[in-house]
Automatic annotation (TrEMBL):
Matches recorded under Gene3D superfamilies: Glycerol uptake facilitator protein
Keywords recorded for this protein, A-Z: Membrane, Transmembrane, Transmembrane helix, Transport
InterPro entries reported in the protein's UniProt record: Aquaporin-like (IPR023271), Aquaporin_transptr (IPR034294), MIP (IPR000425)
Subcellular localization, as worded in the UniProt entry: Membrane
Family: Belongs to the MIP/aquaporin (TC 1.A.8) family.
GO cellular component labels: membrane
A Pfam family matched in the record: MIP
Protein known as: Uncharacterized protein
Membrane topology reported for the UniProt record: Multi-pass membrane protein
Domain of life: Eukaryota
Transmembrane segments: 27-48, 55-75, 87-112
GO molecular function, one term: water channel activity
Length: 127
């Protein structure tokens, strides 16, 4: 990978960074990153949860498929970052890559823990 980046800079090409397409607004790109991160984090929660059994080798494959699908779907529009750390260096202060993934990850956590597997208090507690 390093040799590819070195070759790209030597030939005069630029190292790819996350950019928002001209057709997208900042809000639209942030919303897209939010949805992508939600899908990724939800998949990670779902395959790692042992309450419904283990998925074995299928779990990491599912995570790889959702990450790849997200990048293919959003790459031309917002870069398909799904991770604030990836965009931190080249784009310090870009709210699209901070707000969207953080909201998407928090929403995936809330939906998975409260909608899919809500925890019930034992009977007689709090009465």
């Amino acid at each position: 990978m390093a040799s590819l980046l070195l070759k790209m800079t030597v030939v005069g090409q630029h190292v790819p960074t996350y950019t928002i397409a001209k057709e997208m607004t900042g809000f639209g790109a942030s919303l897209m990153e939010c949805i992508l991160t939600f899908a990724l984090v939800y998949t990670v929660y779902a395959v790692g949860d042992t309450r419904h059994g283990t998925l074995g080798a299928i779990g990491p494959l599912a995570i790889g498929f959702i990450a790849g699908a997200n990048v293919l779907a959003a790459g031309p529009f917002s870069g398909g970052s799904m991770n604030s750390a990836c965009a931190f260096g080249p784009l310090i202060g870009a709210a699209v890559y901070w707000v969207g993934p953080l909201i998407g990850a928090a929403a995936a956590d809330l939906v998975y823990e409260n909608v899919m597997f809500p925890s019930h208090a034992p009977e007689g507690v709090g009465v």
